[in-house]
Amino acid sequence: MSTDQSIRRSSRDRALKALVHSYEGEAICHDLLEEWQRVDPLSSADAALAAELTIGVSRHRLTCEHIAARFYRRRWLGLPVPVRVILALGVYQLCWLDRIPDHAVVDQAVRQAKRYGRGAGAAANAILRKVIECRGDVVEPPDDPDPRSYLPLDRDRGRLFGQNVFPDPTRRPLDYLIAVTSHPPWLIERWHRRFKPKLCRQICDAGLRRPPLVLRPNSIRTTAIELRDRLLSEGHQATLTGEDASVALAGDPSVSSLAAFKEGLCQPQDTTAQAALRLSPPQPGNVVIDLCAGVGTKSTQAAEMMNDSGIVIATDTNTDKLALISANAERLGLTITRPTSIEKLSDCIADLRSPPDLILVDAPCSNTGVLARRPEARYRAGQKSLQGLIEIQREILRCAQELASSTTRIIYSTCSLEMEENEEQVKWFCEAFPRWQVQHQKFVLPNEECDGGFAALLTGPS
User: Is the pLDDT of residue 304 over 90?
Assistant: First the structure.
């Protein structure tokens, strides 16, 4: 990452504020930073640094805290959350970034920590200086590194430490994964139990990656090959992905800055998310209802599959998103998408005088299949949060079956890896409403190439 040779306090303060707000996983750092940037804009350089610090610490927070706690003589959880975040910010810069001077990292951490009680500044100074003393060089992955003193930074490099800072994976494998991959105990334990060690490690490694920007070509206007060639000609690192049906961009570009995006040639959407509608592609002239439309990613995908012929009713409980659905559809040149509030949905369907052919339930979920893109989601509070999501999903499925006719198909999808939200949820639905059955279902584990997720096609009696 390119930055000045100093740390701007405004950038660090904004990153600290976002990380504290999202500490329990209930807020999305990207959304917070965008909102604050609109209200109180930083310079482009400051905003970029705040974003880098925020997303980096979100992705690696438990690892950063583990390293800092290794050099703290007292009870780590006794520190206030803001102080823990300040130290995590410091460790992230010292261990992951290479363009920020050590003295600037320590100085700014001390300044911030002093706001949170007597002695906090001195503790921050002592801890971060010990990290500097223990921290070794960044190296290519050794053939056989001692995992207790080696921190993998990404696939191509890692950092050596002068002493053991991580648990021994042969004796404490779960504690090691928690410390090195920054996934909380409740997730590590359930993944290790269900998927066994090898696949559990795959999931954890996928959650650490910086995912590429995946673009779905607008099939009405272009193809994946044409989109790739256009982006290559503009200097982007573009490759075909998802069975050559999409384009992946490396280098973490801003999608809003892409001319192809502005011209409506593409829409950001991971290949796993795209696969849900392909279980039963809507046809031209169909009526489709998207019950959890968000900003309209799958609604516009359906409209493209239908060659902009038919009707796509897109609704969401968050009415602020209805305008975003309209804006996305307009940008893509789609005319059949109808953003509709939940309160007006029944009337809208009645006016059609035609039952829906397809109802899409892209349900709110734990996001455990997309932790590379939503790193904050890993910090949500365990089983209690999961149970609440399960009830929400069931309520949406009940709504879907009430709107369905005997010929309607339902596609249920999540970006979750948890059985309770996926296989068990569609099993519950078919037991609660016996006329429905699962025709197809697909489950994908996240890896270096794609996100994880689940989708099932549900149909009534033939």
Answer: yes
Given a contact cutoff of 8 angstroms between Cβ atoms, the answer to whether 37 and 30 are in contact is no
Residue 349 has pLDDT above 50, yes or no: yes
Neighbours of 237 (CB within 10 A): 12
Among 69, 75, 161, residue whose Cα is nearest residue 124? 69
Superfamily of domain 212-267: Sun protein; domain 3 (3.30.70.1170)
**Shortest CA distance to 412 belongs to which of 434, 450, 445, 438?**
438
For residue 2, is pLDDT > 60?
A: no
Cα–Cα distance between 168 and 146 in angstroms, integer? 9
Q: Is the pTM of this model over 0.85?
A: yes
Give me the phi and psi of 440, to 5 degrees please: -145, 150
Q: Which residues contact 440 (CB under 8 A, 6 or more apart)?
A: 279, 280, 456, 457
Which of the four pLDDT bands, split at 50, 70 and 90, describes residue 9?
Answer: low
Nearest CA to 374 out of 419, 414, 318 is that of 414
Q: For the domain covering 9-182, report its CATH number.
A: 1.10.940.10
Whether 275 and 442 have beta carbons less than 8 Å apart is answered as yes
Chain center to CA of 325 = 20
In sequence order, the 6+-apart residues with CB closer than 8 A to the CB of 397 are: 361, 363, 410, 412, 425, 429
Identify whether the C-beta of residue 434 lies closer than 8 Å to the C-beta of residue 461: no
What tens digit of pLDDT does each residue of 405-416 get? Answer: 999 999 999 999
H-run or E-run covering 450: none
The residue ranges of every structural domain in the chain are: 9-182, 212-267, 268-459
Question: Any idea which fold 268-459 has?
Answer: Rossmann fold (3.40.50)
pLDDT band at 188 (very low <50, low <70, confident <90, very high): very high
